[in-house]
Design a protein that fits this description.
Blueprint lengths: L2 H4 L2 H9 L1 H6 L5 H9 L18 H14 L1 H18 L4 H12 L5 E4 L14 E5 L3 E11 L7 E7 L5 E7 L5 E3 L14 E11 L3 E6 L13 H24 L4 H24 L3 H26 L9 H9 L9 H12 L6
Parallel strand pairs: 1-4
Antiparallel strand pairs: 2-3, 3-7, 4-5, 5-8, 6-7
Helix pairs in contact: 2-5, 5-6, 5-8, 6-8, 8-9, 8-10, 9-10, 10-11, 10-12
């Protein structure tokens, strides 16, 4: 299936029309999300046996790239929902897959992830979220510091640390006593994602909801980790939208052509690398290197588009200012230390492509 067949032009146009409101306003972008549901996007990464359409890795990446170019806020929400879906799908818990995936495929329920405390957030002190094992399950205490769409979710795939240092991954029911969703964070961009802290105070989760662990590094299980190829894909898609605007400017301003051509070549090279990694597996360090180059590209492309737009691009609702602000998010979103350091090198003086 071609990208145009997977993501109809009508869908991207509707997302693009609402992209400014989804980014700037703190309301949940219900209309945009409903458009994804109606187009079957919420079934892309769910097996057909559970009501999904089970798209291939390359189809998923092509679809995410197009959606990110239309509305990064809505696509970011989708990425967090799909990360939760993958963790459930790949957990080996066939009973939970049967219970949860079908309503997620049709959009009747919403799930998200609260795993950053195990990977990139608050890594320099005591565990942000702890778990105590009981005869019937686990008692959670602490905070999940970064949960997108928390107040829209029935389920949060969360991670916690036991007293002996082992970790668990568990489905946290948001209506369970002791689970408190804080007001959305005041973000520089992507406000409609309604990203919040979720506090657990003596919150009991039955063992039925355990997805993985206890294990030393529970995030290494399954294929649904954060900050992977999907994150780089969204950066490439977002950069592509800025480059398209720059190409339009270059059509009337020949002095812009060298910049547009160089960014276009880099964009195409990174997309090729992304697809090669998706089909060939690839080493973790190759994925992290791609992430750093994608980060540098999205910053440079959006800044170039803003520069080309002159003063008018700095005024809402011009897309140049929105894309430039949103690009900053990739510098902090699920960005492990190695990727952050490589990004800094690229932004300082290094080439984007090796």
């Amino acid at each position: 299936m071609s990208p145009d067949e997977l993501v109809p032009t009508e869908l991207t146009e509707k997302l693009r029309d609402r992209a400014d409101a989804a980014d700037f306003e703190s309301d949940w972008p219900a209309e945009s999300w409903n458009q994804l549901v109606a187009a079957g996007v919420t079934g892309w990464c769910i097996p057909t046996a559970h009501g999904g359409s089970e798209r291939s890795s390359l189809e998923l990446l092509a679809g995410y790239e197009q959606l990110a170019g239309a509305c990064l806020t809505t696509t970011f929400i989708l990425s967090q929902r799909d990360a939760a879906v993958r963790r459930i799908r790949d957990s080996g818990r066939a009973d939970l897959a049967r219970e949860l995936l079908r309503p997620l495929a049709c959009g009747g329920r919403f799930a998200t992830v609260g795993l950053s405390q195990l990977s990139t957030s608050r890594q320099h002190g005591a565990p942000a979220l702890t778990a105590r094992e009981t005869s019937s399950g686990f008692v959670l205490d602490g905070v999940m510091p970064w949960v997108t769409g928390a107040d829209q979710a029935e389920h949060i795939v969360g991670g916690a640390v036991l007293p002996d240092g082992r970790q668990i991954m568990i489905v946290v029911m948001t209506d369970q006593p002791g689970v408190q969703i804080e007001p959305p964070l005041s973000l520089a961009a992507l406000s409609g994602s309604r990203t919040s802290e979720v506090v657990c105070r003596n919150a009991e989760m039955p063992r039925h909801w355990l997805l993985a662990g206890p294990a030393p590094q529970v995030m290494s299980t399954g294929r649904g980790g954060t900050g992977g190829l999907e994150t780089s894909c969204l950066a490439i898609g977002h950069a592509g939208a800025a480059i398209a605007d720059l190409q339009q400017e270059a059509a009337n301003r020949p002095n812009m052509e060298p910049v547009a051509e160089r960014l276009t070549a880099t964009h195409e090279s990174l997309r090729t690398q992304l697809h090669q990694l998706a089909t060939g597996g690839g080493a973790a360090d190759a994925a992290l290197a791609l992430r750093a180059r994608a980060n540098a590209l999205v910053i440079r492309a959006t800044q170039a588009a803003l520069t080309a737009s002159k003063g008018g691009g700095f005024v809402r609702p011009h897309p140049a200012q929105r894309r430039a602000r949103q690009a900053l998010f990739f510098l902090v979103w699920s960005c492990p230390r190695s990727a952050a350091e490589a990004t800094l090198r690229h932004l300082a003086d290094g080439p984007i492509c090796s």
